[in-house]
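[job 0412] stage=fold_complex status=start
inputs:
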Amino acid sequence: MTPLRRVVLVDDHDLFRAGVRAGLGPAVEVVGEAGTVADAVPLIKELDPDVVLLDVHLPDGGGQAVIVQVAPERPGVKFLALSVSDAAEDVIGVIRAGARGYVTKAISGEELTEAVHRVADGDAVFSPRLAGFVLDAFRGEEVSGTGDPELDQLTAREREVLQLIARGYTYKEIASRLYLSPRTVESHVSAVLRKLQLSNRNELTRWAAERRLI
Amino acid sequence: MSSIRSLRLPAALPGFQRAEGGRVVAGVAAGIGESLAVDATLVRLTFAFLSFASGAGIVAYLGLWSFMPAPGVSESSRKRRIAGAVLLVWAGVLALRGLGLADPFVWMLALMGAGLVIGTGAQTFGLSERRAHVAAIVLIVAGIVVFVGDNNSWNASTFLPPGAVAVALILVLAPFGWRLVRERNAERAARIREQERTEMAARVHDSVLQTLTLIQKEPGDARRLARRQERELRAWLYPDSEQAAEGALGAALEAAAAEVEELHGARVEVVRSGDAALDERLSALVLAAREAMTNAARHAGVEEISVFLDAGETNVSVYVRDRGAGFDPEAVAADRRGLADSIRGRMERVGGSARIVSAPGEGTEVELEVPR
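[job 0412] stage=fold_complex status=done
writing structure:
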């Protein structure tokens, strides 16, 4: 049986929070809710949940601000970004700040529950849209001068996995299609997440700079 | 504050106000007459006589008109006070020259006078005390330099006086001009914000509110209406900068997806990596993809269809995938137009390819590719 996950919900729309609460499976317990950065930061520090479901857009600073303020003190808390936003820089920005994944708000309750467990287990959650953004960001051979080539490029396998995610495949489907174990697919995705967070690639640096992350 | 002010510059013009009754031009003379309890005609005569001194009377009149508050107003605007002071100094210079005083001496008196006025009237001109004092010192020194310079026959008087006056004017007017510019910018920003807000309100009214009204009328259609509204809002909130520069393959594919959603009610999620300019071959690709989406929406029995556009350097691919009923591609009659013509035929005619992966119960994926 999957362990019970304690979740804090940060979103400025009451209606949306109610919807998420209702849609989450029984193995996920919402222990707290906040609608602003100012409310969320102390709440998360106090409750120390497994996962924070975090809206990318918040009235007083956005999801990034929450991560930046909480992460140094509560390294065990995992963040999963949740948004209707399509803007690549918003999504990449919140991932670079430390979120373990990104899903769109149109996601079903079942999928969201699965994503919460996956993030709590330390894995990364990539929606098709995020996979598309990442493929874009790592496109071509262009590498910044000071960058670490290891971090600035995706391996052929990682690219393949991302393409399948973008095409709408689940990890399980990807595993059977590529003759890999689901665990290996997970580790490829986690590796991509790490590169996304640490790479100095021009494209990413530009995004990060625009969002004042560096 | 008002007590300080009344002790300083305005004290020279005690309670002067332009008159409302008995005025001839702007009520300046009548106003002065009223305040000093003399006949206004006498004041008017003074202005007239002064006018013989190179028009000093006219300039003084204008200066006072600018300086004196309108009837019923306690003080005129800062702008008017400053303009008035400048005109009065000018009138003073003209009058002194009219008295036959030598130019450098007149300039010295004018500059020193202006310096004293500014030095003591910081508030009147909206300057900080420090600035006013600096301006006053500069003006007084300039006045001395003009006078002494001329007497030592430096021949500086030809360019120094105009220069000194220019500097004085700049010192007086610069902070005022700066404030004016800042006020104007603030005003413009406010106007732009207001415009944006109005535009946003109009937009929300035309789209979101209309859709909400429609949904209330026909709840059965809510899903389709909401989805269409979502697309519209998204396109407006996140306009695609790439698309404008590089061409519109991505946008065309999104539009095709929107049409299919609209017609068949299934949700079509388009994910894009890269984009390309739309040409004949890529248009064929979009049409083939549209056909694939339509098939999925009609036959797969699913609510969501995933579309992925991958515009690489050597080729452009589109994947249309559903998790629906699926079918056996071998068993489909060769003459079925949808698959044969609209998808395979179309792709082959432009040098591309189509691959269909499906099995009953396993969903379907159509893979379309054209070389770049």
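[job 0412] summary: The radius of gyration of chain A is 17 Å.
[job 0412] exit 0
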